[in-house]
DNA-(apurinic or apyrimidinic site) lyase (Microbacterium tenebrionis), 332 residues
Amino acid sequence: MPEGHSVHRIARQFDRNFVGKTMQASSPQGRFAEGAAVLDGREAVSVKAVGKQMFLETEGDLWLRVHLGLYGAWDFAGEILLDPTIASANGRMGQTNQRGTDLDAAILDDAGENSLASIGAPRRTRVHVRMSEQTKGLADEGAQWPPPVVGQVRLRLMTDITAADLRGPTACELQTPDEMLATVAKLGPDPLVGDPAENEERFVRAVRRRGVPIALLLMDQSVVSGIGNVYRAEMLYRARLNPYTPGKQVPEELVRELWRDWAHLLPIGVETGQMMTMDDLSPQDYRAAMASRDDRHWVYHRAGLPCRTCGTEIVLEELGARKLYWCPRCQA
């Protein structure tokens, strides 16, 4: 499932390519035909991401809510104004997948630092890209326009030069402003949305009043927005916190450290497109980590391998119907 950094990246692309423009909307699959008919001909006014959900505002006080869920993805095609913090040197979107990327596709300076943010002015390029958690960005120069419909497209949004196809979302619906606000109100705080101090206090209160294991609380989108399986495992390890510790038994300062760590990691994910959770790497190690998940994480997807710190075998268990990776010694 796409974690929060991916959805923020997708929202940036909508901001650059759709906001301020009149959209054509259709539902090639037919499952969103009525909603597409309502959207058709409206101007996109604004867009925002909160955790794992994106909200696109259109004229007439109407919002499109999209939750990609486990299998959803957006495909962009046409003349795309690339966000300089997302684009790579060969015209592709930065990767949103966790399968690794070629070193040649990563933009790294001589010191091994990610330099996407310093590319300069946004560039226009005719490409085809996919943004989801499980698929690579794809480039297809000189593609047919408008692009042919491929597969089960729930919703196609188009301007005169750009198209975005939505496939397989958990949720795709139209909302009034009040309904949108009610949806957002049910979500936990997102470090990139709202007041930082207030967000931290909301998170601390939500965790400290619950007897639920902290590993479950971090995945509860009403407690905190955007954290999925990868960030959950990595944050708990970075905090050296036993995943089964009830929230109300986690010391308040440690709860605050968890929040601040999430506020630290999320912007890195938005910038790089990778859930990078290892700090202070050498230039060589940073390049390796940007190229491969195997070098990017402390415990996630490392079941049976030795802990990078103590050598104890990393454990894989199931908690809340999701895989949980942790070190039984470092996180005892």
Remarks:
- The two ends are 28 Å apart (CA to CA).
